[in-house]
Amino acid sequence: MADVFITPNARKELARLPKVIRQRVRKLFQRLQAWPNVSGAKPLSGDLAGCYRLRTGDYRVRFRVEGAAVTVDKIGHRSDFYEN
């Protein structure tokens, strides 16, 4: 069981999402507690190597894993999600 932490920036991004999407993203946080047994998590490459992403519809959640801690650092729409 992993501890899920959300950065202040990710909390702000979460607060700006539509209510329905916010609920779906919160379900992803619950799924992340079962790390590494999370289906659909994809490792990122290039400048984002070391991070993973989960998706729900057109929205993405980026996170990194450090031991038993999962840190969510970005939440956003796919159109601008991969811009750093």
Key words describing this protein structure:
5 strands; 3 helices; 5-stranded mixed β-sheet
Topology:
Elements: E1 3-6, H1 8-15, H2 19-32, E2 42-43, E3 51-56, E4 59-66, E5 69-77, H3 78-81
Parallel strand pairs: 1-5
Antiparallel strand pairs: 2-3, 3-4, 4-5
Could you walk me through the main structural features you see in this protein, from its secondary elements to its overall organization?
The protein is an alpha+beta fold and 84 residues long. The chain has one domain: RelE-like (YaeB-like fold). The chain is 31% helix and 35% strand. The chain contains three helices and five strands, in the order E-H-H-E-E-E-E-H. The chain has helices at residues 8-15, 19-32, 78-81, and strands at residues 3-6, 42-43, 51-56, 59-66, 69-77. It has a five-stranded mixed β-sheet with strand order 1-5-4-3-2. The longest helix has 14 residues, at 19-32. It is globular and about 30 Å long. The N and C termini lie far apart (29 Å). The model has no long low-confidence stretch (mean pLDDT 94).
